[in-house]
Amino acid sequence: MEQAGRYQDLGNYIERRLGEGVEPGATPLAYLCLAYGKLKRYSKLLDCLARLERRIDAGDWQIQPMNNLRYNAPGDARPLLGAMRAEALVEFGDYRKAITTGEGAYSAIPKSSFSYSPPFPPVKLKLMVLPVLVIAATQAGEKEQAKRFMVQLENVEMPFGGSGMWETLKSNGLGRAYMALGMYGKAIDELAAFRRSTLTGGLADLLRGWSANGDSFVTIYELPRRLMLGKAYLETGKLGEAKATLDEVLASPRARDVGDLYWLTLFERGRIAEAEKDPQAAAKLYETALHVIEEQRATINTETSKIGFVGDKQAVYGRMIELLLEQGRAVDAFDYVERSKSRALVDMLASKKDFAAHAVDPGKAKFILDQLDLASEASRAQDGSSSAGETNSARNLTAARQEIKSVAPELSSLVTVSSVSSEELRGLIGEHEALVEYYYRGRDLYAFVLDRRQLRAVKLEGEGLEDQVRAFRHGLEASTGDAWRKHAVALYDRLWKPLEAALGTPQSVIVVSHGVLHYLPFAALTRADGGFLIDRHRLRFLPSASVLKFLKPKQSNRLLQMLVLGNPDLGDPSLDLQFAESEARVIAGMFLGSRLLVRKDASETNLKTAGTAFNRIHFATHGKFQADDPLASGLYLAKDGSNDGTLTVGELYSMGLDTDLVTLSACETGLGKVANGDDVVGLTRGFLYAGSRSIVASLWSVDDNATAELMKRFYANLAGMNKEEALRQAVIGARQSFAHPYFWAAFQLTGNGD
User: Fold this and answer.
1) pTM surpassing 0.85?
2) Which structural domain, as residue segments, surrounds residue 41?
3) If both were cysteines, with which of 308, 436, 735, 748 could 180 make a disulfide (CB 3.0 to 4.6 Å apart)?
């Protein structure tokens, strides 16, 4: 069964034998784990691998011949365990750990090279591990390392016996490796040669038979190979061959069973339709692909190890948005922009399980989330189940999504892709207010301007945007001179001037940034006459326009109480913030009933214990931002025996606050930093979800003295102004003492402006 790719039958057989009392040793567990991995049943796979590892650690590492398998020597489960785990790590996106695990598995492969014995001979183990190592190294950005693994794969020697079987495995592995490295011509040579081989012809009847009987060979081997070949044809300009090959995949009744493979095929087919000047057909293909993408919560890339590359979900949104705007459908394009940002947030939070559930019974919320994850995994499983079973899986997933949306709408927005219509958003925008939302991919840059009357889309110049934002931030870093000014004017002309006609003269503007623009200090954008954007408009920011629906109203009847945490003891004198401590003491003295926590008292534990009792919280401490792991971004506080001292983004989504304002006065991303913005979005969205109505945060670590003065002005202004105007006037006032925008432009208000 394993040799024939009949993994559903194999898994059923082992489960039945274990149920009959067969000892769960290395032999049955190895085959069971292999079946679960091929069928993408991840929760069962991870448990199975852990059980197998425990058996190996106890000395049970031999895979014995099974009753119905004709091997004459035991095999070694140790490299097989590493190979299976490395493949799973690739699909979970943990590429560096996959490399380490795969290298360990490769080094454990026995040196002997006999062919039919044992069940997993060295040649087979090498052909399992090396393609995964190529893919992992490529995705980790280690191209030279990937090429070294590929050379090892190319040099795997074929044993004399069973050479046809091993040649097939090697050809498939090389095809995946070439796809990972973008060597499409060589991939075509391997994959097309396999398709023409006599073995393929011999398998045709078996494929039809197994497919009809619900087995999984087609979904595990044949369809991924055809997708790889179709994409390789497309990337080398062979549109006719690409179209025919991808249409074969779409025509297969099994294609829809494999969500990641299906949407990738639809996307590549849509690219062909665009090349054929058929935008309507392309849009339809992209729409179907996005429907599949949005059905899943998890970011598991189930097909990565099969096809050698990771599909870019955001590229599908980008092409769809571009086509809709070309057709003048700005409202539909705006909806997809919001959905793309929702998808990015859901992906970022996909590994998180312990969300706080505000105004919802925690037990019920956890149960619904568990049901959503179970239904999502069932819909991904490639078990060749009957069409009725597949329909039930889809129905269960839809029901779970609908239930969480009904019971906990804001939580639903974190775990399922959603958006709020532009019509509903118009009703949430103030009378003298407008919303500007940016969207860009590569050279395509758009701004959507929404007010209470209409939505307009404006095409902007996107070429070199990241370089220009980076140059502007570097210019600010000097904190003296005018090196920043030319970039501030150029960015104003690029990003804001083309919107002035659509904007009119609103007093307030809500800015929804995208990507690199999350690091842009909009307040310092400069008109040609020298005036700053902050002089003309009150500004506030949102992670996405749809967040407007979930912003909590201000509680005007609640006594103002301030919790101030400043200059926590981080165990390193070089990290002390003396001005921040002075700032904290001054600000705490501005409000009756304030509580001041400094040095060791400014701890994560004290925040979590006392934070819910205060409606304003002020942090004067260091922050860290990690674009490669946004959930690990956060604030540094003092540690103790209960907490490690880092309040991470991930923890924020599990907290419950009831605060009107959170201020992060020493938080920073670093002026030289420009990434995808997920770290900034995660932090501000995390505080909003935790229960803060507004957040004031800095985009870089500002001079302590300037920060202290600006913060004092801001809090004093709050006595007679809303937050938007209070921050605007604090910034304008701070310019009197600190003219250079380095000192005042970093601070932005996110959330509610009242």
Assistant:
1) yes
2) 7-181
3) 308
